User: Fold this.
Amino acid sequence: MTTAVAAPFRFFSLQVVRTERLGPSTVRVTFSGEDLQYFFSDGRDQSLSLFLPHPGQTEPQVPLELGDGWWQGWRELPDDVRAVMRSYTLRSLRRNPDEIDIDFVLHTPAGPASDWASRAAAGDRVLLLGPAIADNRAIRFRPAEDTDLVVIWGDETAVPAVSAILESLPAGTRARVWLEVHDAGTIQDLATEADAEITWLVREDGLDAVRTAQLPAAERPYVWIAGESGCVKALRRHFVGERGIDRRRVTFVGYWRHGMTEEQLRAAE
Assistant:
């Protein structure tokens, strides 16, 4: 059994089952492994940490034998040995057989994770730090029970999370959604039972689109914003400062920041 970390999270040893191109800049990678029987998640915007091997390595290098000391041990490994760590959103979880999907956005020039995803093939091995308890702190989408309108904005990196969120919304939920992407080929048909109006913005300024939008009347709206950190912060200020929405009803998550790698972003936090 793979070394556990701290409940409700643990490591899962996985391998690629198959890949699927969803568009010119998105690839879905399906993973399986015996450890997934211990993986539990309520979905929505479930955050995961994925550890990937460098080119030429057969598996990612993470010192699991150190137990709770794995983090410091991992940081001390040489740069060209230490597994590449990136944060992703769980797209879906299935049983019988146990499988999970993670959607990757492909970049040009490609970073290490984008490069790995573009070449991923059945049998490739990864490590995943993920939830062993379905309701865990790495799920951020948490509207109050009295919410009468869900408002969502996300960029291309947030499309998997938004897709899972929309699938989780019950019938009758009113939702207004904006998704900002770089290529029309990224646009997907999103399944939901909610009364959702979904607007795809291709190479458009999502901030202006949201700022000028007429929202449906609501007394207790809930806002979820995720994507590039600068845009996320600007939209939070808009919803709280200009629209007067209670800041406790606004969830905002910076998935990335212009000009910074994930390592630099983590170091700056």
Summary: The longest strand covers residues 9-23. The chain has a mean pLDDT of 92.
